[in-house]
Each structure stands twice: as C-alpha cells, then as structure tokens.
Amino acid sequence: MTSxxxxxxxxxxxxGRSAYGQExxxxxxxxxxxxxxxxxxxxxxxxxxxxxxxxxxxEKKEKKKKKKKxxxxxxxxxxxxxxxxxxxxxxxxxxxxxxxxxxxDPYIRDxxxxxxxxxxxxxxxxxxxxxxxxxGPYEKRLDDTVVESGxxxxxxxxxxxxxxxxxxxxxxxAHFNEGWPRASRVTYxxxxxxxxxxxxxxxYDLEEGNFYHFHEDGRVxxxxxxxxxxxxxxxxxxxDGTGDKTVRKxxxxxxxxxxxxxxxxxxxxxWDREGNLVYRKDS
Length: 283
Prior knowledge:
Blueprint: H1 2-24, E1 34-35, H2 52-64, E2 71-72, E3 75-76, E4 78-86, E5 89-98, E6 113-115, E7 120-122, E8 131-142, E9 145-153, E10 156-164, E11 170-177, E12 180-181, E13 185-190, E14 195-200, E15 202-203, E16 206-207, E17 209-214, E18 220-227, E19 230-238, E20 246-253, E21 266-271, E22 277-280
Antiparallel strand pairs: 1-20, 2-3, 4-5, 5-8, 6-7, 6-8, 8-9, 9-10, 10-11, 11-12, 13-14, 14-17, 15-16, 17-18, 18-19, 19-20, 20-21, 21-22
C-alpha cells in the first residue's frame, strides 16, 4: 500500500515539473520581424485633420445646448471622488467616468482611467476588466483650493486644462484635442488628401508624447516616444512595400529616462524584408 502511494506521488511530482517547465518556456520575441496589431492606414489619426477653428466652433455649439446632468459629449457618466490626507492637507480628485466599452486611441500615449480595484487614476495600460475611462470634467483640489481642472474625452485630455498654485494663482494653461497637444506638428505628403507624413507631439515648445512617421501608403514607418524633448525607450522602424505583412526593420534603444548622462543609443535588433533576424545585440 505504501509503495502504491509513493508511486502516485512520484507521478504527480513529475507531471507538475513537466507543466512548470512548459510554463517557463519563453518565445524569442526577435525570432521574427513580422508583427501583428500594428497601426495601419485604417487607423490614421483623423482627429488631427480638424482645425483649431473648427474645434472651437464645435465647443461653442456644445456650450449653447442645455446640458443634462452627468452627460458630456452625449455620453452618460458617473461622478466620483478620491480623497487622501497628506501632511495635514486633503488631496481630492473629482471626476467622471463612462462605463461604455470604448476602444482607446492607439496613437495616444496617455489614456486616463479609473482603477476601481485600487481606487486610483492611472494614465497607462488601460484594462477594461479593472476600471473605466475618464470622461467629463475633472478637478483636483488641495483642501478647498482648485489646483487643476480640465475635461476628459474617453480617457484623453480635451479642451482647456489649467493648473494653479495653493493660492489660486494660474500657473499654466494648455489646450488638447482628444489627447493631442494643440501645438502638435503635422506634416503631409499631400495635405489636400490628408496624407500624413509625420506627427510630432509638442507641449510647452518641447516634443512630448508619441511620435509617428508614416510611409506614403499610410503604413507606420517609425514609432517612438519623446519626454521633455528627448527620445526615450525603444524606437521601432518598419519596412515599406511588404504587401499584407508588417515587418520590423530596426529597433533602436534610447535612454529610459530623459537627460540620462553617458548613455549612447544603440541598435538593439535588425530584420530583413522577410522578417528574418539578421542582427541582435545581446544584453
């Protein structure tokens, strides 16, 4: 009887080790340069075609309409507040969110959402199973003084945003169009046909946010991120003319944080037009 129990235990142990080994087996992310779910011409940031004047007209029309309670841009929202005490002061965030299952704009870096499990507002890695997109007016207060105010549109900053100090003195005022700083630079292959070449996000006269360069057929050519005017993180280039495939051409690693001293950008990996790995710098 004891030997049978031992054999059963040994079998379970071996099965467990086998399953554990399978779970730990990792796929080489560089084995193929062919990628899926990369931005395509169908998802070109059309919102950038809207001029500032057209946007202002739309906002004025919206203000003239009689607003219904907790409905913004035609969307019903819920209002809530997060309060925290720190060094004898109360920090409060009043905001609205929508429960509609909305797909976020893949071009926007900062998508703001309410994490209902942790009771915090996040601006990256939106998870619809954990929370909801912010939508509607937002206000941050230090005790009873408003220190920041603005409007969200399905998780993106929209319209005028203002920040104040503890004495209610205006420190800054910025304008956004559905997440894009209004001062962003857009160049075109053909402006009449709205054929975008490059999109460079500009905030406070510095590059800030996701940068995009497109091939003439509308497919993404280069994507990367700026912080405080400096390139950061991994920048990826893509081959053009690859038919129905999207193939990485090169990945360049920049500093993870801006103004990092003694960091030299380097090519992390390269692929040929077929997606075969031809070079990789081992870490």
